[in-house]
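Batch manifest, entry 17 of 40.
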Amino acid sequence: MRGHELMSRVGAASKSAEGLPAMKRLVHAIAPRPWVNFAWNLAADLGEIGQRVSDPRPRPWRVVHNVGGGDFYATGEAFFALFRDAVALKDDACVLDIGCGAGRLAFPICGHLGSRGRYIGFDIAPRALDFARTHVRGACAIEFVHADLANAEYARRGERADSYRFPAADASVDAALATSLFSHILPDVAVHYLSEAGRVLKPGGRLMLTAFLVTQADRKRPGAARLKLEPYGEMAFAADPRHPERAIGFDETSFLSWVEAAGLTVAGDIHRGDWRAPAATGGEFQDRLVLEKV
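Output type: structure tokens
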């Protein structure tokens, strides 16, 4: 099954937490964020009990690992297919997984890479990394790195992320990815992470990322979107300005200027997510784009 077809099925089967009905929006508005996250993750875990019984593969618990929505393996395979095609992934590549979490993409990537390949994943969640270290296997060299960084949504204590140096040498990475990462970091961190991607990628190397990119057309019809983003500063938009890292978007023109400043360029079309649609379309929720090192 092709990546786009599988991605469509995953999108249809998984209703994003961002498309909440009125009652759930009310809960998000009045309840403390840790309580909301725990309740949402617990409900998702309980809903997967039958799948855990029928499928012997290890699955991270959302209440422990903050995995994200959708089936862990199906979503990973879908995004891997998109990533593999977008970067023309070879089996001897060096891959950097920015915000790797519990290894949702690490499983298929390390299964694809050969003995001359290398996988480096880093994340701010130590328990998610513990799961990945325990279960991800492959012929390639595999390294998981804990980035001790602060993020209001996932790790309240830690160092500033806007000065973090990615765990890779200059011009050493063939391909990088960042799924559901730029949707949870503040503008100064996004600028820095793009710069770091430009530093570590080889000339011609590519980064596939997902984000919420707000265009002028989106600004004219904000009430029609599944995910309603309100202005947050001059260049960003947030689902909840009190907790911007819950779901944050960026002015597209500003974001593309950061891309250019990082020595990167957009390769191909920007795939528009259905977050801006009135209802789910069965496709991808976030926008997806591929950047290439000039």
